[in-house]
């Protein structure tokens, strides 16, 4: 019988056999040799596995080392000095090779020096200590302390300086920013900026463009801050800017306020556009091609230059207003004035400006220009005003290519104490009481204009001498078929209505008894006044030396029968008024051959 050993093997002995010691030793030695051989084999396998693992680890380490070697430059580029490791070439002919670091250092930003663009951290110290010119990246930079920025700054779109109350930030060098780019956020009217730019923009101040924020304080700040060389203030966009504070030129020279063109002509454009379809509200239609200053209901003047309450003050020079509109408030009870320049001035230019809606009462004026030498008004549209244009005590003025439309009760163009005015190539529309009123003025020329009125007294001269009225087209469309939108035309046609109570005998052109040495020449005068006693030109008793030459009177109903083409009342015997070659159009009939009739003094 066999007995198992510990490893499950059995010696081949019979049951009940008692092995000798030698036999036990021998069997055990065999067993030990087998175990040792097994252990050795296992050890060899372990060594092979370990060797294989070491080889695999070595290969993995080699691969990792290669990868790390490839990553070293990228890791280095992320360091503060990394830009110095990368090359840069502009690419143009003869451009030189540089590092990216060198190229980037061409444009430092204020953030490089510690400015934080969170709108709360005070950046005053950083801004006032900038050693070099800097770019200003987008963000809001709070400025809580007054001081001067001496570095050149280029502001990226979205970069804003937020100036605290009572703080004044002075820029000793011009800033670089787009005209419609918001740059400053002022806490209130006590927050100020002082700019070195000769050309600035109100767009830099983020003013509301829907007529809800007063633009006056901003424009006045920019005017007051101008240098001796003056300043150009740009009014960007097709927008509405509220004027609750008059824009005051403050006695400064060479101030230019300029937009990109005046908008629609008048309220008529707005009314017609709104009637063309639903949704065409005023906010949609206005302001058309350019910006407009819209007066609030309580302000009296839009843009002003007033003399100080002292004597001996200097005149101002070089004022330029161009490319915008000034609009009165339609709901005000204040006698508003659009542009009122009464301080002594010279070389004032008003070009491509529109002025409308100044019609509250007889004191409402569109544009008043006084004590002006060598002023120019060109391309101005002034309408829906009680008195569109008022000129006083001025010399050597030019008004050309303008359009004016007034209201009954005041002259459309009122001129007093004017010397050497040239008024040419203009258009005057109804409904002014007089289209041109000339008082105490001399050596003025009115030539090549188109003038239309519903009333007589279209051109009137009082105490004026040495003036020329020549080559104008003068029209009095009193028929009910005219297209002007007013009830007055019906009154004129049916009741001989006139706002000053004048009748047809007054004269379409009227010279009072103190108006001498004037020339009225080559005008074409049309009228449909229904009274056959109508008068074309009347010269009152006492006037002398006037010449009325070569005028043509036209109209299917006027100047017939006993009508007077020219009525001259009792001219002085030694210095008469001459009436030469004045004829009636073939469209009308005149009784006999009389073209002029002298009437008794009235």
Structural topology:
Blueprint: H1 21-77, E1 87-89, E2 97-99, H2 100-104, E3 108-109, E4 118-122, H3 124-128, E5 134-136, E6 139-143, E7 147-149, E8 153-155, E9 159-163, E10 168-171, E11 175-176, E12 184-186, E13 192-194, E14 199-201, E15 210-214, H4 216-224, E16 231-235, E17 240-243, E18 247-248, E19 255-259, H5 267-275, H6 282-285, E20 292-295, E21 301-305, E22 316-317, E23 320-327, E24 337-341, E25 345-346, E26 349-358, E27 365-370, E28 372-373, E29 376-378, E30 381-385, E31 387-400, E32 403-405, E33 413-424, E34 427-429, E35 436-439, E36 445-447, E37 450-452, E38 459-462, E39 468-470, E40 473-476, H7 488-495, E41 509-511, E42 519-521, E43 524-527, E44 535-539, E45 547-549, E46 552-554, E47 564-568, E48 578-580, E49 583-584, E50 596-597
Describe this structure in words.
- With 602 residues, this protein is α/β, with parallel strands linked by helices.
- Among the domains are: 109-197; 426-602, no CATH class.
- Helix content is 16%, strand content 34%.
- The protein has a 34-stranded parallel β-sheet that branches. A four-stranded parallel β-sheet has the order 3-5-8-11, with no helix packed on it. A four-stranded parallel β-sheet has the order 4-6-9-12, with no helix packed on it.
- A hairpin with a 7-residue loop joins strand 1 (87-89) and strand 2 (97-99).
- The radius of gyration is 47 Å and the shape is rod-shaped.
């Amino acid at each position: 019988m066999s007995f198992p050993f510990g490893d499950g093997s059995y010696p081949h002995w019979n049951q009940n056999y008692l092995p000798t010691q030698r036999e036990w030793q021998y069997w055990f030695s065999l067993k030990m040799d087998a175990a040792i051989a097994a252990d050795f084999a296992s050890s060899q396998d372990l060594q092979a596995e370990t060797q294989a693992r070491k080889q695999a680890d070595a290969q993995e380490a080699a691969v990792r080392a290669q990868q790390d070697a490839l990553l070293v430059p990228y890791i280095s580029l992320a360091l503060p000095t990394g830009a110095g490791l990368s090359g840069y070439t502009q690419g143009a002919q003869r451009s030189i090779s540089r590092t990216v670091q060198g190229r980037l250092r061409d444009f430092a930003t204020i953030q490089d020096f510690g400015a934080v663009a969170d709108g709360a951290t005070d950046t005053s110290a950083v801004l006032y200590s900038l050693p070099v010119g800097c770019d200003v990246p987008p963000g809001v930079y709070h400025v809580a302390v007054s001081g001067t920025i001496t570095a050149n700054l280029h502001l990226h779109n979205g970069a804003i300086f937020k100036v605290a109350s009572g703080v004044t930030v002075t820029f000793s060098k011009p800033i670089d920013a787009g005209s419609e780019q918001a740059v400053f956020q002022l806490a209130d009217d006590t927050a100020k900026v002082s700019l070195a730019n000769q050309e600035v923009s109100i767009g830099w101040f983020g003013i509301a463009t829907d007529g809800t924020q007063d633009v006056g304080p901003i424009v006045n700040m920019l005017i007051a801050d101008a240098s001796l060389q003056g300043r150009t203030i740009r009014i960007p966009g097709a927008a509405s800017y509220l004027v609750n504070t008059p824009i005051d030129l403050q006695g400064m020279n060479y101030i230019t306020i300029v937009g990109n063109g005046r908008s629609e002509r008048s309220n008529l454009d707005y009314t017609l556009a709104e009637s063309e379809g639903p949704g065409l509200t005023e906010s949609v239609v206005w302001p058309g091609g350019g910006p407009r200053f819209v007066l609030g209901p309580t302000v009296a003047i839009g843009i002003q230059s007033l003399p100080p309450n002292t004597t001996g003050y200097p005149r101002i020079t070089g004022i330029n207003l161009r490319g915008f509109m000034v609009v009165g408030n339609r709901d005000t009870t204040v006698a508003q004035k659009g542009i009122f320049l009464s301080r002594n001035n010279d070389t004032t230019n008003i070009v491509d400006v529109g002025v409308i809606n100044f019609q509250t009462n007889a004191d409402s004026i569109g544009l008043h220009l006084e004590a002006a030498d060598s002023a120019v008004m060109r391309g101005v549209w002034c309408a829906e005003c009680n008195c569109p244009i008022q000129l006083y005590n001025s010399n050597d003025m030019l008004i050309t290519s303008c359009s004016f439309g007034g209201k009954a009760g005041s002259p459309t163009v009122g001129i007093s104490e004017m010397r050497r005015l040239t008024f040419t190539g203009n258009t005057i529309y109804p409904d002014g009481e007089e289209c041109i009123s000339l008082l105490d003025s001399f050596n003025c020329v009115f030539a090549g204009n188109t003038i239309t009125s519903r009333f007589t007294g279209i051109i009137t001269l009082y105490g004026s001498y040495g003036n020329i009225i020549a080559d104008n087209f003068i029209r009095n469309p009193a028929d009910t078929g005219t297209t002007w939108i007013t009830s007055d035309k019906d009154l004129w046609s049916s009741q001989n209505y006139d706002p000053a109570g004048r009748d047809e005998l007054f004269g379409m052109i009227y010279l009072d008894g103190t108006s001498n040495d004037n020339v009225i020449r080559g005008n074409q005068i049309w009228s449909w006044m229904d009274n056959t006693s109508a008068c074309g030109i009347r010269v009152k008793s006492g006037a002398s030396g006037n010449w009325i030459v070569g005028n043509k009177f036209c109209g299917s109903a006027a100047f017939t029968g006993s009508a007077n083409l020219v009525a001259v009342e009792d001219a002085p015997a030694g210095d008469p008024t001459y009436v030469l070659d004045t004829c009636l159009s073939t469209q009308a009939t005149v009784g006999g051959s009389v073209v002029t009739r002298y009437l008794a003094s009235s």
